[in-house]
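User: Please predict the structure of the protein below. I'd like the answer in structure-token form so I can feed it into my own downstream comparison script.

Assistant: Understood. Taking the following sequence of 273 residues as input:
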Amino acid sequence: MHISNYRYLLLPLEISRRIMSFANKVVIVTGASSGIGAAAAVLFATEGARVVMVGRNQSKLTKVAEQCARGGQAPLVIRADLANDDDIKRIVDETVNKFGKIDVLVNNAGMAIYGGVLSGNILKAYDETMAVNLRAVVHLTALAAPYLVKTKGNIVNISSIAGKMVLKAEYLPYSVSKAALDHFTRGAALELASSGVRVNGISPGPVKTDFIENTGMSEVTWDIMSNAFPLKRCSEPEEIAELILYLASDKAKGITGSDFVSDNGGLLQYIPA
């Protein structure tokens, strides 16, 4: 038999191993109602994981949950507001009550509110942004960590290249929150390493989600955004989801405290405001 034909016989086995790579792993994904979080939830489900989807929009969560169920097991859907401490505790409680463990935590949920030093709203924008982009991550990590220690699990935090450069003055609260998240990722990785828990971050550039719509940047289009980057494109959510999956898998067992940039070359040049 020709060797190329032999490879086709192996494909079903390769696909099976890939699908089962997260079999019975319990994976919490915040911000799972759309964008990167939704793509990650669906991908984890197709890989055999027991996915816990967290988000605020019930109708969007339901649609994504249906996609997950078509490719794998039906997920546990938790409608929650990450700015609410009681909701964060409920996420962990409901997950453990349902599945008895936590293997992977994907802190993906985030928000952006305009605010500048001279605009008069900097403190309000800062407080609301930090509550979701950082404080919620710290709180959820602290509550999930004891369970991750038991499973030797891991955490993936979704940051942004905005944490490494100020894209625009009005984005200051968002940039500060992501810079702080990067440092929290490193600090948590150092503390949890001795317990066998890995913590990593991903810093995307613009990803084609509902982010522009949610922040009210009506003057910006994806075409305009794409042209500002060296590769002349913006990423699709599935690209980032694949990177999340890799970092959460045993293939990345030697990686912790790292920040993976996927920005189509954005950090290589100054991007005009």
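That's the full token string. Confidence is low (pLDDT under 50) at residues 1-11, 13-20.
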